[in-house]
TrEMBL record:
The keyword Methyltransferase does not apply. Pfam families: DNA-SBD_ScoMcrA, HNH, ScoMcrA_N. One of its GO terms (molecular function) is hydrolase activity. This is 5-methylcytosine-specific restriction protein A. Residues 311-372 form the HNH nuclease domain. The keyword Amino-acid biosynthesis does not apply.
C-alpha cells in the first residue's frame, strides 16, 4: 500500500469512473459501502471518500485498488480524509451521509455517554438535546450559526445546570457530534474532541460553525411523537431523577405533553388519526426497552410515584382512534376538549402498585365515566377483566386492526 504516492491525477480518475458507473455501481465494483461520515466534495457533487481513495490506488503504476478491509486503511480523519485534504480536495463531514437504522439512532440518543459519577451525571448533553428537540417539534430551522446556538445553550446551562455545569456550549455540541447526533458544517475538519478546554473553546470561537441535530435525528423528533416521547422519558429518567425538570421543559417548549399527542384535525385528516402498525410496533419496542429498566422503580419528588412512560400513553391514545376503549361505553364519544382533543384518560388496567406493567398491552383509553366505573364502580371487577382483554387484543393487532374506527372529525 502506497497512499503517499497517490496524487490528484489518480483521485480525479477515480472520480471520473464513479461518475461514469454511478455511485452504487462504483461502490459495488470495489466492495465498499456508502461513507458513514466523510465525503469528498468536488464540482458540486459528493463522493465516498474511502472508496475514491481505494479506487485511486489502483491507478498507480503496478498497484491494485485497495480493499475496504486493507490493513492500515480507513476512511477516517487520519487516512482517506486526511489524504484528500492534503491534495487540496474539500472533505465534508456529514453525519447523515448514511443514516443508521431507527433503533440504532435512538439507542445512541438514549444511551448517552456523559461525564460525572453514576449518581451525578453532567447535564450538558441532555440540556442541549432537549433544546434541539423543542426546536424540531416547532419546525424551527435545523441548523443555526454558532453564535445563536452558543447564546441559547449558555442561557439554559446558567438557569438549569444543577450539577456545576460551566457555561460551555462547546462541550455538549462537540460530544454529540462525535456521537453522530449533531451535525457541524462550514468549518475545517475534524472537530476537536470534547475533552479539551481552551483549545476546544478557541476552535468554536474561531471557526463559528453552522450546526444542529443531524438530519435523521431532527426528522425523527419533528415527525414521530413516539420517538420524541420515548427519548424524553429516557432523558428525564436517566438525568433528572432527583431534580425537577419542569422549569427546563417549560424553557425549551416541551412542558405541554399534549403538544406531542395526536395532532388536532387542523393538522391531519380524520383518516390519519390512527397510528400505523409500524409506528406502533416501533414505539412498543422503545417502551419495552425502557420498561425493563424502570419496572417497579419509584421516582422521588415530593412523593414517591411510579415511573410512567409518556410514549406508552401516546401509543394507547393513538390506538384508541379518539374513542373510549370500553366496548360498553355509553358516553359522548364525539365531544372534545377546547383544544379539539378527545376527552380520554389513559388507565392501567392492572395497577402499577399491584405489579401491573406500564405497557400498552395493559393500558386502555377511557372516558371519565368509564374510568370512574373501572376505579370505584360496583361492576369494576368484571369491567377490568373486559378491559384487560381489550387492551391485549388491540395491542396484539398492532394498534390498528383492533382499534375502534374514528368517529366524525374531532
Amino acid at each position: 500500500m502506497a497512499l503517499a504516492d497517490i496524487s490528484r491525477v489518480e483521485i480525479e480518475k477515480a472520480i471520473e469512473e464513479c461518475d461514469r458507473l454511478g455511485r452504487d455501481a462504483f461502490l459495488k465494483s470495489y466492495g465498499f459501502r456508502r461513507a458513514r461520515r466523510y465525503l469528498l466534495a468536488h464540482e458540486g457533487r459528493h463522493y465516498d471518500s474511502k472508496a475514491i481513495v481505494g479506487a485511486a490506488h489502483g491507478f498507480l503504476p503496478g498497484e491494485r485498488p485497495l480493499a475496504p478491509d486493507a490493513k492500515g486503511f480507513s476512511g477516517g480523519a487520519e487516512h482517506a480524509a486526511r489524504l484528500l485534504g492534503r491534495l487540496g480536495f474539500e472533505v465534508v463531514e456529514e453525519s447523515g451521509a448514511s443514516a443508521p437504522p431507527h433503533d440504532e439512532l435512538i439507542s445512541r440518543i438514549t444511551h448517552l455517554k456523559v461525564n460525572g459519577s453514576a449518581s451525578r451525571r453532567a447535564l450538558y448533553k441532555p440540556i442541549a438535546l432537549l433544546w434541539a428537540m423543542g426546536r424540531a417539534l416547532r419546525g424551527e430551522p435545523r441548523l443555526l450559526p454558532w453564535s445563536e446556538t452558543e447564546e441559547a445553550l449558555k442561557g439554559l446551562l446558567e438557569r438549569h445546570g444543577a450539577r456545576g455545569e460551566r457555561l460551555r456550549p462547546d462541550y455538549p455540541v462537540a460530544s454529540l457530534h462525535r456521537d453522530g447526533i449533531w451535525e457541524v458544517r462550514d468549518c475545517p475538519r475534524p472537530v476537536p474532541t470534547a475533552h479539551g478546554d481552551a483549545r476546544l473553546k478557541r476552535w468554536f470561537a474561531t471557526h463559528q460553525p453552522l450546526g444542529g441535530l443531524a438530519e435523521p435525528v431532527y426528522e425523527r423528533f419533528r415527525h414521530s411523537a413516539v420517538t420524541r416521547l420515548a427519548v424524553l422519558d429516557e432523558l428525564l429518567g436517566t438525568f433528572f431523577e432527583d431534580l425537577d425538570p419542569d422549569p427546563l421543559l417549560a424553557d425549551v417548549g416541551l412542558d405541554d405533553v399534549e403538544s406531542a399527542e395526536p395532532h388536532t384535525p387542523q393538522d391531519r385528516a380524520p383518516e390519519q388519526w390512527l397510528i400505523t402498525a409500524a409506528e406502533y410496533e416501533r414505539g412498543c419496542r422503545l417502551v419495552e426497552e425502557q420498561e425493563s429498566e424502570t419496572h417497579g422503580r419509584r421516582v422521588s419528588r415530593t412523593t414517591r410515584s411510579p415511573v410512567r412512560s409518556r410514549a406508552a400513553r401516546y401509543l394507547v391514545l393513538s390506538r384508541s382512534g379518539g374513542r373510549c376503549e370500553n366496548p360498553g361505553c355509553t358516553g359522548q364519544p364525539a365531544d372534545v376538549t377546547d383544544r379539539e382533543h378527545p376527552i380520554l384518560e389513559v388507565d392501567h388496567v392492572v395497577d402499577l402498585a399491584l405489579g401491573g406493567r406500564d405497557h400498552p398491552s395493559q393500558m386502555v383509553a377511557l372516558c371519565p365515566n368509564c374510568h370512574a366505573v373501572k376505579t370505584r364502580g360496583r361492576t369494576r371487577e368484571a369491567l377490568r377483566e373486559t378491559l384487560l382483554k381489550v387492551a391485549m387484543e388491540r395491542h396484539a393487532a398492532g394498534g390498528t386492526d383492533g382499534a375502534a374506527p374514528p368517529g366524525p372529525p374531532l
